[in-house]
Amino acid sequence: MNEATEERSWTTRRDKKAKKILQVSQLAVDKILPSEKMVEALEMLISPGDRVVLEGDNQKQASFLSHVLTQVDPQKVYKLHMIMSSISRPEHLDIFEYGIAEKIDFAYAGPQSLRVAQMLEDRKLKMGEIHTYLELFGRLFIDLIPNVALIAADQADVYGNLYTGANTEETPTIVEATAFKDGIVIAQVNELVDELPRVDIPGSWIDFVVVADKPYQLEPLFTRDPRHITDLQVLMAMMTIRGVYERHQVQSLNHGIGYNTAAIELLLPTYGESLGLKGKICKHWALNPHPTLIPAIESGWVESIHCFGGEVGMEQYVAARPDVFFTGRDGSLRSNRAMSQVAGQYAVDLFVGSTLQMDRDGNSSTVTSGRLAGFGGAPNMGHDPRGRRHSTPAWLDMRTSNDELARGRKLVVQMVETFQKGNEPVFVESMDAVKVGLDANLATAPMMIYGDDVTHVVTEEGIAYLYKSDSVEERRQALSAVAGVTPIGLQHDTKQTAALREKGLIAFPEDLGVNRTEAKRSLLAAKSVEEIVDWSKALYNPPASFRSW
Amino acid sequence: MNEATEERSWTTRRDKKAKKILQVSQLAVDKILPSEKMVEALEMLISPGDRVVLEGDNQKQASFLSHVLTQVDPQKVYKLHMIMSSISRPEHLDIFEYGIAEKIDFAYAGPQSLRVAQMLEDRKLKMGEIHTYLELFGRLFIDLIPNVALIAADQADVYGNLYTGANTEETPTIVEATAFKDGIVIAQVNELVDELPRVDIPGSWIDFVVVADKPYQLEPLFTRDPRHITDLQVLMAMMTIRGVYERHQVQSLNHGIGYNTAAIELLLPTYGESLGLKGKICKHWALNPHPTLIPAIESGWVESIHCFGGEVGMEQYVAARPDVFFTGRDGSLRSNRAMSQVAGQYAVDLFVGSTLQMDRDGNSSTVTSGRLAGFGGAPNMGHDPRGRRHSTPAWLDMRTSNDELARGRKLVVQMVETFQKGNEPVFVESMDAVKVGLDANLATAPMMIYGDDVTHVVTEEGIAYLYKSDSVEERRQALSAVAGVTPIGLQHDTKQTAALREKGLIAFPEDLGVNRTEAKRSLLAAKSVEEIVDWSKALYNPPASFRSW
């Protein structure tokens, strides 16, 4: 215990915050900052080099605050280390062009993936790491503790209590990491009210509130129009229902975005019903409120759904179905990305994903040339969580040994057509992601799902039951057997087909009792958005872009 | 869409809740229930067969509510499906004896593990599943959605807003899963106040509050008296610092409970300092506020600590060190088990555990004959999280191949002396857990940490670098080389020792530059609780049972 120890301050973060709050309080009335003073306020509240979380979710965007941030003086605010779940808006990258921000840690960059890659090449952006959502949230409490959080909510009261309504997403997680480490939390809200419908985040966690010039940006990312589902996708969905869900008794699951999984959802009340599977499979879900799940819900298939976020147009429907969805006292959806990711990782039987490229070992990535898209939540759910200790019938059904320590595993299913649109093969010798990783100087190749975590691959040709394979060679054979006329499919030694079928390593539609000629769009419970609205008893209110009648 | 669909109610949970709340409101003043009416209230609020979460954490116990629950009439309240993180108190099992509860899902049963096993054998208890904390939390949102939550907090106001103070633990997670699915949340509090120091849980999530007859039970589980640390543990700690932390540049980590890890914590400011490692290793932590970490904190080793829960006696010290700990506006600790488990799984370089038994493949378990202890949080942190996509130097250092898709892995270290107290070997041919699992009719053997997730095993003999092994055989050789004169150690072919050392698969103290003769208790920064108090400048206030001066 030397002298230096004696003199050290242990409240540097708190003192720095107190000083800033005092300075900004001249602009504010209690916690409320006027929108026209926000540039000035941010210049006072954010120091050079600060770690700033900008929300930046999969759906909800703190769009007003991101715009304000582009307007601060780069002589005053610079070298920011940005943390964003999702790089979604042009401003999210403009701040790097303007010299305000320097480094980025993120999880997903879908709409901006091309520009991220370009800016990295041009050295306008210093790359931190690419994460899944959950590991990024974890780091907010470990080595990426924020100095400032810029977040979005529906409503606030004068005490700073927040109502996040149907689109809670990551707001509570970001706020907790910031507020409880003497960081500064600034919330943009759509409106200020006297009384909130419910409190999602306590006012004592929030420093400042600003009413935005317009409501925060919100995208309908999980709406799929059934008109675009093809017969081939219906075939693959039928195979998945019979060959995976029924066979392994899958009771809890996650579906991502896509027409393949939308087809499954729309086949449950028709094809699934005809197989007598209601009440036996697909009862508990971790997913956003997909409109295509409405017919299955209305038909009594679905017991519960926990949501990562909301979905535009589903507000009224969700509020009318509280037995199924998690809702608050005000009646609206309560979503929570962190807890839904935890549930989607550890508490469900199955994850279904899709991909743009897959190699002969079943490794897959949606990263393609020149695009650094990130991972989002898929890898977190699309792997075998080795920390899991509880069992379910489906999980146990994955055991392939009689060893006394044998355990089950999570079902990780990839559904892909062998060719993408534009006739690009999905099954390839080498994925673009490997080159992208090298070009971007990443420490590891940006893989979405690793092959050794994949239990099943479903294509229009059939299903490969990869979890049953005894060797790398057998695994490759099974995969190539369903890879069609792609470079990987053409490597298949057809003499092995019978043996692989015999051993149950692959199954074709006829092996599963699926009749190819029955695989028609007419089997879908709803063939258009209009029919989904009908199923919902007009409670679903699709966004304008999905209205065509 | 048939007639049955038309007639279905979608608000059964909400309606049931409204009816119960109305009935109980005759007993309550606003949200406040009188403590002497609680038996009656629980009989109204809990229906037969309900899923009830009873808090039941690692440290904090809703002790008043658990006592009340034993007093309800089993003619009125029966067949409850209990969900508890931790089975800690006699009442937690009494309710099964009394015919009130029937089935249990849990994560940990330390103090009650013997009785759990006995009641299972006597068929007085129906076993659900044994979980890690995080997967149990996940299931609360999927297929174990609660009807009722019985929780504990420090203070409430009349609106039901809760202050959980330093021991937040799982309260927010349990409440969220219950409140947002029309379940009933009842909080016992130590006191009712006009104004809370801070709001940890909004009142709109809470249905009823009752002031308990005495403060909730809270155990000092993470306090280790340095007087009990042996020279052998000092030796193992020195090896771990040099051979694991320094070698792999471990910057973020979790330590569990135990004298081995306490020794590491107390060597950082002495031995670690002499190696020039300050600022290079052990900067970010996910762990409870261990008193034995105080000297390292005071010496400037520790940048941040996020906590699962609190620790009795550490309140004032934590409040005085907000640069290090997560604290609220009131100054006290903010813990959160769910988020700290997420961080401990995904965002740290290393986990260190210990065990009672380990087999030749490195599998380990703390379950021993007749005791069904459960897993707690260890398996969640003690595995390689395959959903992780970001890299750190330590993580990358685990790569053993040049494959273009090679990735790093988490460091999972087991520190064990080759023999337990009482001369029982730790390294054994077959673990008791296998037999316990069979006897209890569990679907899989209750393993704590699986061998293929373990990267390093440290014993008093040396370190086995298991992650470097090319084959099962080589792995077994490396492990047996450090297993002393146990049944597994005696299988070691000493002719292989030189080759294993050469290849870096094992290291003895001399290979690590650790001098056995220097491994003395005198190296510890604090040799007693009293000295820890001195380091803390009297801010640490140890519980009476740890005061001996």
From TrEMBL, chains A, B:
It comes from the Bacteria. InterPro entries: MadA, NagB/RpiA_transferase-like. One of its GO terms (molecular function) is transferase activity. Pfam families: Mal_decarbox_Al. Gene3D superfamilies: Glutaconate Coenzyme A-transferase. Residues 370-393 are annotated as: Disordered. This is Malonate decarboxylase subunit alpha. It comes from Fictibacillus enclensis.
